[in-house]
Structure to design on (115 residues):
């Protein structure tokens, strides 16, 4: 069962996908509707391994604080632990909402899905 905030996010993502001809937002909308057990868990270590400095990423699940990160990333995720947020911000990175991400990258170009 999904809550009202998830339904609002899905609606916004689908609208952005259609308006901007950006399939990445439709893909994220589908991922948001998956049951909790199917959502992804990604550690900070994994983000550090698969990203480059100043990369923009989306995690369609929860970011956990295990490990360290050695470079800046701009992160959008469905959920994030306090420890992970501190580590990402401590490395000079940013954590932004999906609506800010759509505003800054309407076509989804330069945005990667991790997890």
């Amino acid at each position: 069962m999904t809550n009202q905030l998830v339904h609002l996010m899905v609606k916004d993502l689908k609208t952005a996908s259609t308006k901007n001809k950006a399939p990445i937002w439709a893909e994220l909308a589908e991922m948001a509707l998956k049951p909790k057990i199917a959502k992804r868990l990604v550690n900070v270590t994994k983000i550090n391994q698969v990203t480059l400095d100043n990369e923009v990423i989306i995690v369609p699940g929860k970011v956990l604080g295990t490990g360290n990160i050695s470079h800046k990333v701009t992160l959008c995720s469905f959920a994030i632990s306090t420890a992970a947020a501190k580590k990402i911000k401590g490395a000079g990175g940013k954590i932004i909402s999906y609506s800010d991400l759509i505003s800054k990258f309407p076509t989804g170009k330069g945005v990667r899905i991790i997890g």
